[in-house]
Specification:
The complex is a heterotrimer of chains A (90), B (1002) and C (416).
Chain A (H helix, E strand, L loop, with lengths): L2 E3 L6 E3 L4 E5 L11 H9 L7 E7 L7 E7 L5 E6 H7 L1
Antiparallel strand pairs in A: 1-2, 3-4, 4-5, 5-6
Chain B lengths: L1 E2 L9 E10 L2 E7 L3 H7 L6 E2 L6 E2 L12 E4 L6 E5 L9 E5 L10 H4 L1 H4 L6 H4 L8 H11 L14 E13 L3 H12 L4 E4 L17 H16 L3 E4 L2 E7 L3 E7 L16 E13 L3 E3 L12 E3 H11 L1 E2 L4 E5 L3 H13 L4 E4 L7 H5 L3 E4 L1 E7 L6 E9 L4 E11 L2 E5 L2 E3 L2 H4 L6 E3 L4 E3 L7 E3 L9 H18 L32 E3 L4 E2 H9 L5 H8 L12 H12 L3 H4 L11 E2 H5 L16 H6 L3 E5 L2 E6 L3 E3 L5 E3 L2 H14 L2 E4 L4 E6 L3 H8 L12 E7 L5 E11 L2 E6 L4 H15 L6 E4 L4 E7 L3 H8 L15 E6 L2 E6 L8 E7 L3 H12 L5 E2 L2 H10 L49 E8 L11 E3 L7 E11 L4 E9 L8 E5 L5 E7 L16
Parallel strand pairs in B: 2-8, 9-10, 9-14, 10-11, 14-28, 16-24, 18-19, 18-24, 19-20, 36-46
Antiparallel strand pairs in B: 1-17, 2-3, 4-5, 6-7, 6-8, 12-13, 13-14, 15-25, 21-22, 22-23, 26-27, 29-30, 32-33, 34-35, 36-42, 37-40, 37-41, 38-39, 39-40, 42-45, 43-44, 44-45, 47-50, 47-52, 48-49, 48-51, 49-50, 51-52
Helix pairs in contact in B: 6-7, 6-12, 8-9, 13-14, 13-15, 19-24, 22-23
Chain C lengths: L4 H9 L17 E7 L3 H13 L5 E4 L15 E2 L6 H21 L10 E5 L2 H16 L5 E4 H7 L15 E5 L3 E2 L2 H14 L3 E3 L4 E7 L2 E7 L2 E10 L5 H7 L7 E10 L9 E4 L4 E5 L5 E7 L11 H14 L7 E12 L6 E4 L6 E5 L9 H13 L14 H4 L14
Parallel strand pairs in C: 1-2, 1-11, 2-8, 4-13, 11-18
Antiparallel strand pairs in C: 3-7, 4-6, 5-6, 9-10, 10-11, 12-15, 12-16, 13-14, 14-15, 17-18
Helix pairs in contact in C: 2-6, 2-9, 3-9
The chains are: A alpha+beta (90), B alpha+beta (1002), C alpha/beta (416).
Amino acid sequence: MFLIRCPYCGEAREEQEFSYAGEAFIQRPPLTCSDEEWGDYLFKRKNIKGVTTEQWLHSAGCRRIFVMERNNVTYEILSIYTFESKRGAA
Amino acid sequence: MKRLAPQAHERIDRSKTYQFTWQGESYYAYAGDTLASALLANGIDVVGRSFKYGRKRGILAAGVEEPNALVTLESGGYEVPNARATEIELYDQLNAKAASGIPSLRFDLRAALKPFHKFMVAGFYYKTFKWPQKLWPHYEHYLRQLAGFSEVPQQADAEHYDHQYQFVDVAVVGGGAAGLSAALTAAQSGASVLVIDERAELGGELSSEFASSAEAQQWFSSTKQALEQMPNVRILKRSTAFALHDFNLLLVIERRQDHVSLKQRNEKQSRQRQHRVRAKQVILATGSHERPLLFANNDLPGVLMASAMRRYLNEFAVLCGDKPVLAGNNDSIYALAEDLVKRAGVKPVVLDMRVGYDASRLIAAGIDVRQGYTILKASGSNRVEQVSIAKVYYDGKLWSASAATETLDCDVVATSGGFNPLVHLDCHTGSKPLFSNALQAFLPACDKPARISAGSVNGHSDWQACVQDGAYAAHQILGRLEKSVAPTTVKPELKLLNVAPFFCPTHQRNKIFIDMQNDVKASDIELAIRENYRSIEHIKRYTAMGFGTDQGKIGNVLGIALAAQLLNRSIPEVGTTTFRPMYTPVTMGALAGEEVGLLFDPQRFTPIHASHVARGAEFEVVGQWMRPWYFPKAIEHLYDAQSAEDLHTAVQRECLAVRNSVGVMDASTLGKIDIQGPDVREFLARVYTNAWAKLAPGKCRYGVMCDENGMIIDDGVTACLSDTHFVMTTTTGGAARIYNHLETWLQTEWPALKVYLTSVTDHWSTTAIVGPKARRVIEKLCSDIDFNAKAFPFMDWREGTVAGVPARVMRISFSGELSYEINVPANYGRYIWEQVMEAGKEFDITPYGTETMHVLRAEKGYIIVGQDTDGSLSPYDANMGWAVSLTKPYPFLGQRALTRSDTVRTDRKQLVGLLPHDAQKVLPEGTQLVNAIEDKAMIGHVTSSYLSPILGRSIAMAVVKAGLSRMGNTIYAKTVGGETIPVTIADSVFYDTAKEKLDGEV
Amino acid sequence: MKYSWLALLKEGLKGHQDWTPTWPDVTPQTAYDVIIVGGGGHGLATAYYLARDFPTKKIAVLEKGWIGGGNTGRNTTIVRSNYLWDEAALLYEHALKLWEGLTEELDFNVMFSQRGVYNLGHTLQDMRDIERRVSANLLNGVDAEVVSVAELKERIPILETGKQVRYPVMGASFQARGGVARHDAVAWGFARAASRLGVDIVQNCEVIGMDVSGGRIHGVETTRGFIKADQVGCVPAGHASVLAKMANVRLPLESHPLQAFVSEPMKPVLHTVVMSNAVHGYVSQSDKGDLVIGAGIDSYTGYAQRGSPHLIDHCAAAMIELFPIFSRTRLNRQWGGIVDTCPDACPIISPIPEVKGLYFNCGWGTGGFKATPGSGHVFAQTIGHDTPHPLAAPFHIQRFTTGALIDEHGAAGVAH
């Protein structure tokens, strides 16, 4: 039962306010890609055991999506950041 | 067994005598008693029967670890199944009966099967009842009757429950010496502190010390008083912390009324409350449970835990027997002996497996102390009468018993085989407990952040050390909270009770009970290992050890130790089974809290709801919404009798009214998303399959939305308010999902698009006036819009004033009729509806519900996403290729998927119309379709089906393999009822194919 | 030793001293023809059917912990075959037929109890879906029935069928041949039967690497050394992606926590299985008397075998919604499993195209237990013949490229 600090709202809130929104940073291939590439993009996931990088939506809050690095074995949250900060850094 | 004269620190109130009923007979006891102490005080030995062999069982413990004394408490709406007598606080007129005994406590069928018990070993049922397999249900039927304890209550709950959230700096679990000390230290720093204790009074095991230590009593009173006066401390008594989840979410059940007599319960107050505590730091001062020694017939009534006997003596003034034999493998056994002598004048025989403990004081008092002895076997019929004892030797690795035995008469046996620290909560988040050889116990690892353990859960045995450990733990966590309090404390030394290593006699292991509730014997563990169930988890599962309502609190560690011996491994190598929530059983209602009945899920009503109720509407559940399904008219009968139209009659009437005159529908539930920004058209072009670049202000457009898999997920109309402002409608059920979907794309993939979404579903109310006379109705209400069909064409919208209310009027249609959807701010919704009803009176305006809406749209072949589509239909499959634009600069979501090899197949299931050959035959929706009468291979199914009043015949929509190229073919519907109905594949537009009705009456 | 009353009688008189291991513990050999990775029900079943149908093959099952310790020992044991789509229904029906003879086949009582399974409908759309599914089931030779509310009230008197609740029950589908089984017994029974046919069952042997080169597999690296094999069948449930990564393969899976809980044991009161998707929960009563209740899946990925408590609370509320008399019963224990979910809620039973000799059987999500014998059988055939068994063919991993999904999400009543 996570306690999640939304990077936009700045407060730690109950997991129920948020929704898991899947693996982060999946690259969308162009229209010209092969069926295999499209299938990979659409369905195949890293599904890592350990530290994952994933999207969460503050669905009952500010409704912003942010990135969470989380250990899905120990359930530790390692970091939370916005897409903007990532883009800014890149 | 008897009640002693008043004792100095007893917890009973002898001024209040309570009557209670046990097994239908009346008894008396005092306020402050538990049901267990009351039964003991009344000399009741046998309180239950065991699960498998129906053996007589007495009270073993004094707390939540009790495996035997399960009762059914009360009846009707107040019944509690499988309640533990040791936990039930006695109240006046309490009524309980044993939870076991087939058919009765006195005579148990399972006990009568005694000659067969030797065959009923662990897992015997896996080896038998196999052949023929068909007969298993019959065997099972009888086996099931023998299993289980209480009946499930027969009535719904008479009481209710609630939840409360708590946010504290420090949560302290346990109100014994360590917990109170920790709480006080923490609270002195100014931190907010929550103390949680499962009993009616604080003190825990410390209370047992009061009789012998004035100092303990004094420390307790002053600490308790101090805590009660501090505003930053909250104390939850009668409260069990049953789970500790990640990020220190501590779940607590507070029993608020279970101790109150039924007559005095406050029905406005919840029976139990679940506290969901988020604590910055958690101190686990959970204490420990004693475990027994093992010997044959150790399950006889009258054999109990030493600490329990001590507690019954000191707190309840109940003497469990006049001729006690105390047996132990650690120092604690002597404290009980001293109390017995001092308080009851009883001289027990004390057996200590070890040698060397200085018992001179007791010996001087004339107590028979035998060191190097233990019990091998107990005997008795209804209760223990004798024990055989023998000398035992320890060779540094294993115990052995001398062959010579001696018999002692007794009427109670109290044993202590060491202590099991209550590591449960610490383990709920995956930590493994650590075994200590010095303590012969598993200790909490406390390796997760923001928690610490204190007191006897850490192996401390004397109360002063527990007090010190509590303060020490508090200091540790205060540092983490950046608070402090002086003076600091040092970690106390462990004062060992010198628990001897585990011993299980080798004889009659088929009479040595490891798990009493589930009748798991030492021989069962031997058998499991013999059959290669060697992992502790396999042993547990094969023998059912620890599966009872006590979760093996007493027995599991014994089973682990025995398995270790048999496997020739160390105890930590064998390890424990996993400790999972709940620590003790939790009432299902308390988990649910208030979210039962109509509060199970939020109910959403449109602003017009009250009008629908007043008009007698029947409602359909759509997502969380309650939508009018149809509006049955009252039918007058002879002799003043009255009934209402059925669905069919009402829908026929509603449909014809719309087609021939005018109807009105509440469309407020459709999802509405306000979309603003300079890039909205581009955004729409990406999320919908069709083109949006040229949608001008004042115009509306229908769109189909796909996921990246190319399948339809939603549809709806979007209106262009201005070049930077649009309103999208979604399906009712899909509103939240689609809103999330759109936000996700915007925020993650298209941050460069300047588009902003706001859900406005609840902000607007929508009343749709539908039918050839719709214009005549709306013209009466709105004078600032020109409703002429040319001035205000189909798929346009206008801003205006309807009945004095600013409104957006959209000329869109889900029926093929002339239709105006009046959107007004939600608070005006009902007013507008009533104004429309009034204005439409002269045209006999007819309110209609979702069912009529479905028929009307099906007559026009309009799909309902989620009914006619199921996530496996592309826009092409749905015959909506006209709404797909492949030439947009940025490919729409799902576009790439449409060209995959399977998605381009020409024989995919496609949406078509069906006309049953029998025009009065309405196909059941969902019915599968086949090519030929005898076929079983399915080619599709009926998605929508109705009797069309305007066409006077049945129509259906369906998906059919390659259906679009099979127009006119006859196929067959195979109903669940066994009918085979011939149908013709047809265009899915059944009515007004020339679209002549769209402009209504001219 | 064959299990029977007679054997029990004989052994009982001798104090049960002579029972032999249900399956022997063995040290792994250095090479096998086929290695099955994962000693859960599906893996053990695969090994059993391989050994039975391909007797010349040398087979080992490698289990990282103890057999049956994953989802096999953690599920709510529901067995049924009333799936919507042909491909799924045929696969599960194949399994159900095997269940019906499994106790005798394995000489181990798996306590398969055909007490029937109800899938409740609470909305008009639920009822359309039920009609659609039952109609399809009947044509596929799967027993199925649409049950009215009145009939439900007769058959399950303790079920709340009134209209005053939030989501009134409108009807149900019923599969009489569905039911429950004893989950541990399935693992142990397959283990025993497989080992009697010569399969090596190796516990405490974790696969930590795969030797893949030249487009094919040569063996696996384990915590107990390298073991050579030309064919490796992976049946690792929640850990499928972890294993796949060792062969540099990505799967269309996400592993999520799924939670369940049981009440204290009580006298029999519920004699069938009741499932409801709309209110999120399913329940049966075990032979021991516990109400066995399954909750929803946690939205996030997790390999910790624990989920969030609000799902349990919600499920408890759902149970009370369906059975008001359960409100005062007490819940004894909750636990979690790791379910490997596929985008179309259907499994992958497939050779891995890019690695010859490597096969995966995974993606069963919340519904794997019921398929155990069928899954094992078709997977064994797929490995044995190195070509997909006809019933397994639609579940080829290629479907995620072609788009030929078998979308069981559409069958609302059938998500579990």
